[in-house]
Protein: UPAR/Ly6 domain-containing protein
Organism: Mola mola
Amino acid sequence: MFKVGFEAEKESMKCFRCDLGFWDVCYTTETNCSLGEVCFTGRGKAGDSLDIKTLGCVRAEECGVETTVELFMDKTIFVMTRHCCGTSFCNSAQELQISTFFYLTVAALATWHLTETPAASC
């Protein structure tokens, strides 16, 4: 079992929480962890194409451990690994913010290019 070297803080840690997200889309709220818990980002895969994401608090002993989870009533099974960090709100989706900025930039450039291109004469 993989142990993470996080020491319990004197105050509870604050983390982002998302019970279930697909790919990098995850509705997040803020949550207060219990003493001895750390923030985590859980990543898993259902089938060959469905990426699952969760965020929240977990005991340090559960970090880096691969677990099998049942999803929905049809008992779709996926494998999830929780990646932990040791400061408040460290489980933010920074990669989502960077990719969102990239996609918005590409969309703006494409829109600009389409509006600047002269219309073809008939």
Notes: Confidence is low (pLDDT under 50) at residues 1-9. The first strand starts at residue 14 and ends at 22.
